[in-house]
Every structure is written in structure tokens, then in C-alpha cells.
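User: what does the whole thing look like in 3D?
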Amino acid sequence: MPDFLETTVDKFTFKVATDRFYTSEGIWVKEENGRVRIGLSDFVQQRNGDVAFADVKPAGTVLATGEEVAVIETIKVNITFPSPVNGKIVEVNPAMNDAPEAINRDPYGTGWLAVLEVADWEAEHAKLLDPQAYFMIMKGQAEEETKNP
Amino acid sequence: MMEKTQKVIIVPCSGIGKPYGTVSREAAYDVTEDLRPGQTRLVPLALLVLGDEESRSVVAKNPAITIDGCKLACAAKMVQQSGGTVAQEIAVLDIYRRNKDLKPLGIAELNEGGQKLAKVLAEEVTSLVDGIIAGKQGGENA
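Assistant: Here's the predicted 3D structure for the full assembly of 291 residues, as C-alpha cells:
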């Protein structure tokens, strides 16, 4: 499989990294030795515009799936993102404090949001979308937005 | 050497329908009409995009400060494409990040936060204008 799945809708090209899992809201989840790193997909960052502030829950916060993990303020909107897994935040990307534009510049790399400790990755993993499934959902969302901007 | 008749050109974002674009234009008006009217001149980005000869000529002959409303940086790019020199590049978002309590809202009419942010931005631009002019005068006196 290539490193990225890619589609162009109107004048925008969106990439989906193939080495991680996703929620339908466009949050990516990458397993790293029993912990998971999370962030926002390329489509989510492009759709919402330049990030002004990223407020991620602090390390030590215990979250159930669906509970607020981060609020992102962009030049267009304020968005609350739900945690994609049950877990405890063990690390927050320090760049979110002073350079949250990393989300726009490098959504699958330096723009990560947080690292969470999860008790049962296998169970968490089963609830997530594989890259191909998210790619199809994202493509549909992008095409819909083009029709109804 | 800079000619004495030179002015600092201010080119704000032309984004219509976006608060950050409106902030950039409000600040540009403030600088060119009230704070430094003798030393600056506003050139609308739209005229550069349309290839207006006079605007392109003015931009090509004078140092410019661009004020962009988003990362596309249309103002900075158009000045460069018009043969001009971007002496200073400002992004409204960077000013907002340093003034989180001044969230700009509204389009045709900015909210109070947006108006205050435009004032802060105008002060920063004015300071840059003064720096450019001081640099010119230093060069002329050298």
C-alpha cells in the first residue's frame, strides 16, 4: 500500500496516511508500543482553515471515547474534537501552545495533538476505520462540501 | 539609494467575506489615512491582480508592507509577481495569536474585538513603516 491515499476534489488535494486508523470525524490514531498518538486528518485541517489556537486536555486527563480531547480555533470556526479511544493522556504536543499551525503544515507528523495510554488496544482498534474506509468517507464529505459549500 | 519621493506601500488582503481580511483592510486604512498619511500609500490587491499599470508601477518602485489574512499570502505573492519588494510581511493570524482576547468577528462591520485587533495591527504596521523610513534616511545620510 502507498504511504498516502490521495484524492483531488475541485482544486483541493487531500491525503490519507495509510499507517494509522481513523474516526469518521477525521481524527487519526496511530499505535506506538501500547500507546496511541492522535491528530487530525489532512482533510479536517484543510476544511477548517488556519489554526489560531489548539487547546488540548492536559496530561493526566482520563477520557472515555467521545469525550472532549481538544478544542481547535481556526480562522473559520471553533471545533471540539472527541477522543477516539478510551485512555489517559500521557503527553501533549508542546507545539500546540506556541505553534499550532503545525496542524496545517504537517497534520500527520509534527502536528500531532496528544499521546494516550490505552488499556486494550485490540478493543479500541476494532472501533476505528482503516485508511481505505476513512478515505471513502472523507472523499464523500469533500464532494458533498463542493456541492454545498 | 531611495528617492525622497518614495513612500511605503501598504497592500492588505482582499479577502471579502472574511473577518481577518477585514481586519487587514481596516488597519491599512488607519495607517494610510490617519497614522502615516504622508509616508504611506495603500494599493488595493485587486488592482495588482487585474494588472493595473499604475499600481504595478508604484509597487515596483517602492518598498511594500503586505498584510495577509490567511496562509495563502496573496498580498505578498502579488507584490512579488508585480516586480515589487516585500519589505515586511505581516499575517493577521500572528497578531491575533498574540492578542487572544481580540477575536475578530463580523465582515462588513467588525465586532469590538476585531476593531481593537485592527488598531493593534495598525500600530505594528506603523512601527514597521517608521523603521523602513528610518532605514532609508540612514542610507541617504550615509
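In plain terms: Chain A touches chain B at residues 49-50, 52-53, 75, 101, 104 (CB under 8 Å). The longest strand of chain A covers residues 68-74.
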